[in-house]
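Priority: medium. Attachment 1 of 2:
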């Protein structure tokens, strides 16, 4: 349990853009494989909070199964594709040996991110705050998460800040385009 606590502390430090949080991770293959559980559990826990909060554009006229299917497909595809992209970029930058450190740290950072987002999820899912307001808040949180991705890339891959920013933007591009593709496949109008 002590090791898990250290990983969560390291995730909080990275979430608040303190690069020293990377020291809590070893970058071993075993740690990387075990770290996959963190974002999966955080994602799954979001469905047990309460009511479903559909993504923008799917607020009305779509069934629960379709919403959950779309969200889960996006989560899984973005996890795999973003990881492959960062692995390829790390290798291209001569930092392939550091990828597992990046992978572990970014996965464990999902736990503190979920903890911080939990009150926002409750506000959104319970309808306490208007949908338009919460959409703006979640957009800001998503952009901040990409800044955190850049911090993790900078700290783990030991690249300069410009390459770290490029990695964060590339991950954002993958996530955004996956939403577009999933919406196009289902014939859902893209709201952004």
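Attachment 2 of 2:
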């Amino acid at each position: 349990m002590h090791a898990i606590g250290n990983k969560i502390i390291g995730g909080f430090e990275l979430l608040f853009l303190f690069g020293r949080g990377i020291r809590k991770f070893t970058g071993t293959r075993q740690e990387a494989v075990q770290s996959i559980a963190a974002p999966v559990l955080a994602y799954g826990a979001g469905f047990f909070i309460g009511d479903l909060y559909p993504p923008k554009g799917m607020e009305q006229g779509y069934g629960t199964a379709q919403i959950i299917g779309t969200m889960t497909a996006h989560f899984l595809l973005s996890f795999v594709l973003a990881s492959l992209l960062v692995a390829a970029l790390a290798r291209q930058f001569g930092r392939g040996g550091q990828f597992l450190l990046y992978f572990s740290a970014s996965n464990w950072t999902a736990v503190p991110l979920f903890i911080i987002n939990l009150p926002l999820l409750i506000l959104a899912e319970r309808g306490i705050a208007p949908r338009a307001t919460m959409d703006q808040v979640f957009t800001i949180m998503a952009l901040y998460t990409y800044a955190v991705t850049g911090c993790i890339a900078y700290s783990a891959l030991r690249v300069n800040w410009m390459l770290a920013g490029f990695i964060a933007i590339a991950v954002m591009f993958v996530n955004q385009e996956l939403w577009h593709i999933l919406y196009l496949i289902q014939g859902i109008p893209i709201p952004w």
